[in-house]
Amino acid sequence: MKLLRDPLGHPIKRLYFSAEELDERCERKIADFMDRHCGGFGIPIPTDDLVRLIEMETEDLDLYADLPDDEDGHTDFFADRRPVVRIARRLSDPRYENRLRMTLGHEFGHVWFHAPLWRESRGRTSGLTTRSGPAIAIGSSMLPELTGWSFRRPTSEARC
């Protein structure tokens, strides 16, 4: 936890991970998932496996949602059940495969990092959505460092 201040100067506690902590947690999550459910880790991570990862952690995943043009994905949280993730229908076009993968990684970041906090607060807490956790989840879901690759830099011990 990190002690921050609200706009009125009152102290508030916020869950805080450094970029390195977020990266390591995301890398471990995707590697463990693929070892258990996909016969082992490989790059690129198949889009269907990213979909399955989200489906296992959510109440519902709608890959053909009618979302506004400026919104690729959306996650709804509930105090009494798992989140619902909606992905814009337009991303189902094969031309947008990479955008779909990035959006899936981003929304999974919301599901994995924010849903437990939402349930714990029973929906009373606002401001749980941040950009840093999901942004790190995107990079880690695409090129985890556990394989010798990192979205920051390649290493010489790649196993892919």
Textual characterization of the structure:
By secondary structure, the chain is α+β, with helices and mostly antiparallel strands. The protein has a single domain, classed as Arc Repressor Mutant, subunit A (Orthogonal Bundle). Helix content is 41%, strand content 14%. The chain contains 4 helices and 5 strands. It has helices at residues 19-37, 47-57, 97-120, 132-142, and strands spanning 2-5, 11-14, 60-65, 73-76, 84-88. The strands form 2 sheets. A 3-stranded mixed sheet has the order 3-5-4, with helices on one face. Strands 1-2 form a two-stranded antiparallel sheet. The chain is globular. It starts with a strand and ends in an 18-residue tail after the last helix.
Helix content: 40-55%
Terminal CA distance reads: 36 Å
- At the first level of CATH, what is the class? Mainly Alpha
Q: From the structure provided, what is the oligomeric state, counting identical versus distinct chains?
A: single chain
Overall outline: globular
Strand content: 5-15%
Q: In total, how many domains does the architecture comprise?
A: 1
Order of SSEs, N→C? EEHHEEEHH
What are the low-pLDDT stretches, counting only 5+ consecutive residues below 50? Answer: 125-133, 140-160
Structure annotation, total helices = 4
* Order of neighbouring strands in the sheet with most strands: 3-5-4
Give average pLDDT, whole number: 77
What is the CATH topology classification name?
A: Arc Repressor Mutant, subunit A
CATH architecture: Orthogonal Bundle
